[in-house]
Fold this protein.
Amino acid sequence: MYLREFDLDMPYVAEEAKINSIMQERQCSRNDATKFDYESYWKDKRRMFRLETRCMTAMFERLFEKMKTEDCWKILVECVETINSESIKNLSGVYCVQVKLEHNRFTSSDDLAKKQMTLDMLMQGIRIIAREKDWSVEPFETVCLKMRERDLENDWIWKKPIKSPNKKYIAELLCRHMVKTIDIYIVLKDKTGNEILREKIISELPDEFVYTKLLGELKWISENEVVLVNKKGDNRWSVKLGDEGTGTLSHQ
């Protein structure tokens, strides 16, 4: 088995007093009160936390070289106000460990601080697991250092750059995965590699399940126009290079 994936979670913990209050107010069972509490007050917070930490965990995955393990393919770090278990759980190959997080501090922080806190919590969880499982922590520290050297900027090129039919230009798709969005650009370069045009064509939720659907095919349709077609083939974004080096953007 190979370790390839990393993620953070903010699991729901029922507060006894709150559940009792909901049961009394709504005249419902404990199960229904817990479900109501989660759906009304926690579900959106949990999803937002996962979205806002994904830029760093995805970057860690991209830079991490897969590691052979006995029974682990993913590390999941649960970020909780109060640690109620110091043991490592193995959930069908997912190693799960808890670290402490002040939720309000995270939500009130700016984007850079959120990135730093995300990486710190991920590394804290990894070190606990590495110590318990007698893994070398060096491969993980190497990735952490690379991320810091890049100022925690998760920018990457999707697939390979493509040449225009006349070989004068090169087009590539730049993905900038940030805390609140992923911005996708068509970048045009001359044949020596100098950038001549950059156009943002998409800004989406920073969630692979959302934005990967948009990444179908990048192709040239003329000597100076390149398009991105989504996977279904029913959406396309094009950039056309003008005579003055300016670009015209269109979306169909």
User: Anything to note?
Assistant: The chain has a mean pLDDT of 93. The chain has six helices and 14 strands.
